[in-house]
# Entry
Amino acid sequence: MDMLIALQRVPEAPVPAGPGVRKPIAPEHDLVIAWIARHFTPAWASEARAALANRPITLFIATRGAPSELLGFCAYDATARGFVGPIGVLDAARRGGVGAALLLACLHEMRAMGYDYAVAGAVGAPDFFRHVAGAIDIPGSTPGIYAGMQHAAQ
Ligand SMILES: CC(C)(COP(=O)(O)OP(=O)(O)OC[C@H]1O[C@@H](n2cnc3c(N)ncnc32)[C@H](O)[C@@H]1OP(=O)(O)O)[C@@H](O)C(=O)NCCC(=O)NCCS
# Structure
């Protein structure tokens, strides 16, 4: 199921205690893609690669410490314009505000880029999107843009 987010009603981005939210610089891009493939899925790593090829890039990371340790990422305009996601936070770093900070960073930048709504595609954590961004279900949105896509296991 896809979900719709009204960007004009999205709350201010919180600042999580500890982690910083920023865009990766070019020398970090391959590391970020490999980290996403390792901790999440090859498909999400491919979407991250697409977001990192946009200019300006459309992917934020959350990091902690120096040298910085990656905790999570969120992309937009990866598989389709106006789509937000994928988003992922390391298991050990969840429920600490990192996911909300990443999602809201993307949504605020989308609004600044001229979008009024964002679509979260094939949502795996709908309650998180409802809670953080007021997302609502899009009737008839299954199967969406990912229908029939190739998977690594095939
Ligand atoms: C979904 C995900 C990104 C959330 O990251 P997180 O860092 O744990 O989220 P936060 O701590 O910022 O949570 C923000 C709020 O949403 C709530 N929340 C977090 N995950 C939730 C979930 N799965 N369902 C419902 N509420 C959730 C938190 O309790 C918190 O509420 P609060 O503001 O009242 O305290 C993370 O669980 C994840 O990476 N999951 C696996 C990948 C995934 O499913 N991605 C989404 C695909 S569409």
In short: The chain has a mean pLDDT of 94. The beta strands are 3-6, 20-22, 59-64, 69-76, 83-89, 117-120, 136-137. The pocket of coenzyme A is lined by residues 85-89, 94-100, 123-125, 127-128, 131-132 (CB under 6 Å).
